[in-house]
Write a structure and sequence with these properties.
Largest sheet: none
Radius of gyration: 23 Å
Structural class: mainly alpha
Number of domains: 1
Number of strands: 0
C-alpha cells in the first residue's frame, strides 16, 4: 500500500473510531452529569486535573519519544530497531508510572485539603493512583502502533476501554449509593481505574502478537536507544511537569476566586462544572476529526523533517490549514445559530447555551492550535510547544487571580479568550519560524469567512427554535450543505479570475 493510501486509511480509521468514541463519551458524560449534578461534575473536574498532573509524571514525555523513534527507525528500514526501542520505552514508562502512583498516594491528604476543598477523602485518590503504571505503559504501546502505522489497533484499544468504563460506571450507579459527592466520585474513579487495567491487558496482548511478526535480525550496532529516548522525552517531561502543575493550579484556583467574587463554594463548583464539564465538551466534540488527523501528523512530519523536505511540508500545511479553517468556521456557525437547541437537547439545561454562545468563536484558534502543535512535535520543536503552554498558563493564573474576583464568571471567559489567542499566536509564529510556510490567505481564510457570512444570512430567518431532535438535526444538515455549496461556488469563481 502506498504511503498516501496508508495515511488516508489510518485517517479514516481514526475519524470513524473518534466519532464512535467521542459520540459515546459525550452522551455518556451527559448521562453522568444528569445523574450527579453540576457541583459534583465540577469537583470531579478538579480530581481529573490532579489525575492529569499525575499522568504527566507517569508519561514523562514517552508518548512522543515512542512514536518518533519508531517512525525514524522504520524510515531507515530497521524494523528490529523499532522493536528494541519500544521495549526500552515500556521499561521507561513502568518506572515513571510507579513513581507517579507513589507520589499521588503520599500527597493525597494535602491535595484533598488545598485543591479539592475537603469535599472528599483520600480514598478517591488512592483508587485512581492504582491506574497510573498501567496507563503509562499503554502510552508507550499506542506510540508504537502509531509509529508503525497500525492505527486500527489503537482504535480497538480506545473502543474497548470506553465501553469497559461505561459498563463499570453504569453498574456502579445501579448497585451503589451515589447520593453524596464522594460516593459519586468513588464510582467514577473506580470505573476509570478498572477500565485502565483491563484496557492495558487488551492492548498488551495486541502488542505481544504484533511484535512477534516479521522479526528481522537484530542490528549489531551501538545505537543507544535509552539515550535517544531521554533526549526526546526528558525535555518534554520537565516542561510537561511545569505545564501540568500550573494547569492543576489554574483549575483549582478558578472555584476559589469565584468564591471571592461573592459565590458560595457550591455555586462556584457548579459554575465551574457548567463551563469546563458541560459547555466545553460540547464545543470540543467536533474536534474529534481534527484530533484524528493531528495524531497522524507527528510521524508524517518526522519523516519530512529527517529528509529536509520543506516543499512538501508547505504543501501539507496549506491543505491542513484550509481544511481545518473551513471546518472550524462551519462549526462556529452551527453553535451561533443553534446554542439553545444544542444545550436543551444535551443537558436539558438552557443555561449552558450562554456559555456555548460566548465561547464558540474561539474554536477557530483551538482547532488550529491542535494541528500546529502536532506539526511542531513532528519536526522536533516539542520543547517550544511546551514553553508556549507554560507561558500561557502563567498569564492565565495571573489573570484568573486578578480578574475573576472583580468580574465574576465573565472574568473567567475573558481569561479563556486571552489564553487561547495567546497560545495560538505563539504556536503559529513558531511554526512559521521553523518551516517558513506561505499560506494562500484568500483560499485558506477569506473564502470560508465569506461563505459562513452568506450562509448565516440565508439561514437566520429560515430556522425557528425547536425542541424536536429530528428538526434540529435536519436544520444543522441543511446549514452545512448550504455552507459547503457557497464555499465550493466561491472557490470556482476564484479560479475563473486567476
Amino acid at each position: 500500500m502506498k504511503k498516501i493510501q496508508v495515511f488516508l486509511f489510518n485517517t479514516v480509521i481514526l475519524i470513524i473510531t473518534s466519532l464512535i468514541i467521542s459520540s459515546c463519551s459525550m452522551f455518556f458524560d451527559i448521562y453522568v452529569a444528569n445523574k450527579i449534578g453540576s457541583e459534583a461534575i465540577g469537583l470531579f473536574g478538579l480530581i481529573m486535573s490532579v489525575y492529569m498532573f499525575a499522568m504527566t509524571i507517569a508519561n514523562s514525555g514517552i508518548s512522543l519519544a515512542s512514536t518518533r523513534i519508531v517512525a525514524e527507525e522504520l524510515s531507515l528500514n530497521s524494523e528490529s530497531g523499532a522493536k528494541i526501542a519500544i521495549r526500552k520505552c515500556i521499561l521507561y514508562s513502568l518506572f515513571f508510572g510507579s513513581i507517579a502512583c507513589i507520589l499521588l498516594v503520599v500527597l493525597s491528604p494535602i491535595i484533598c485539603k488545598y485543591i479539592l476543598h475537603d469535599r472528599i477523602s483520600s480514598i478517591v485518590l488512592y483508587i485512581i493512583a492504582i491506574s497510573l503504571p498501567f496507563s503509562s505503559v499503554t502510552i508507550s504501546i499506542t506510540g508504537y502502533f502509531t509509529g508503525v502505522k497500525r492505527i486500527y489497533k489503537n482504535s480497538l484499544y480506545d473502543i474497548f476501554g470506553l465501553f469497559i468504563k461505561i459498563i463499570f460506571i453504569v453498574t456502579g450507579f445501579k448497585f451503589f449509593n451515589y447520593e453524596n459527592i464522594e460516593s459519586a466520585c468513588i464510582i467514577l474513579v473506580g470505573a476509570n481505574t478498572l477500565s485502565e487495567i483491563f484496557s492495558f491487558i487488551f492492548l498488551y496482548i495486541l502488542y505481544f502478537f504484533d511484535s512477534r511478526k516479521n522479526l528481522s535480525k537484530t542490528r549489531n550496532d551501538k545505537n543507544n536507544y535509552f539515550k535517544r529516548i531521554l533526549k526526546i522525552s526528558l525535555p518534554v517531561a520537565i516542561t510537561s511537569y511545569v505545564r501540568s502543575g500550573l494547569s492543576t493550579i489554574k483549575h483549582s484556583l478558578i472555584p476559589i476566586r469565584l468564591e471571592k467574587s461573592g459565590l458560595s463554594c457550591e455555586a462556584s463548583l457548579s459554575t465551574y462544572g457548567m463551563i469546563n464539564g458541560m459547555a466545553m465538551p460540547i464545543l470540543m466534540f467536533p474536534a474529534l476529526i481534527v484530533n484524528s488527523i493531528s495524531s497522524l501528523l507527528i510521524p508524517e512530519f518526522a519523516r519530512y523533517n529527517i529528509k529536509k523536505d520543506f516543499k512538501r511540508m508547505n504543501e501539507i500545511i496549506n491543505i491542513l490549514f484550509r481544511l481545518v479553517i473551513t471546518f472550524s468556521i462551519c462549526i462556529i456557525g452551527i453553535f451561533l445559530l443553534f446554542p439553545n437547541e444544542i444545550s436543551k437537547f444535551t443537558y436539558n439545561n438552557i443555561e449552558i447555551a450562554k456559555f456555548v454562545l460566548l465561547l464558540c468563536p474561539l474554536l477557530l484558534f483551538m482547532y488550529l492550535d491542535h494541528v500546529i502543535d502536532a506539526i511542531l512535535k513532528g519536526i522536533d520543536k516539542q520543547v517550544g510547544v511546551m514553553f508556549c503552554n507554560i507561558l500561557d498558563l502563567f498569564i492565565s493564573i495571573f489573570l484568573i487571580y486578578n480578574l475573576i474576583p472583580i468580574f465574576g464568571i465573565m472574568g473567567y471567559i475573558i481569561v479563556i479568550y486571552i489564553s487561547e489567542f495567546l497560545n495560538f499566536s505563539v504556536s503559529l509564529f513558531q511554526l512559521y519560524k521553523a518551516t517558513k510556510f506561505n499560506l494562500n490567505i484568500i483560499k485558506v481564510l477569506v473564502i470560508p469567512l465569506i461563505s459562513i457570512f452568506i450562509t448565516m444570512i440565508i439561514t437566520t430567518n429560515l430556522f425557528t427554535y425547536t425542541n424536536n431532535i429530528i428538526n434540529i438535526v435536519c436544520n444543522i444538515i441543511i446549514f452545512i450543505l448550504i455552507y459547503l455549496f457557497v464555499n465550493i461556488y466561491l472557490n470556482i469563481i476564484k479560479k475563473k479570475f486567476q
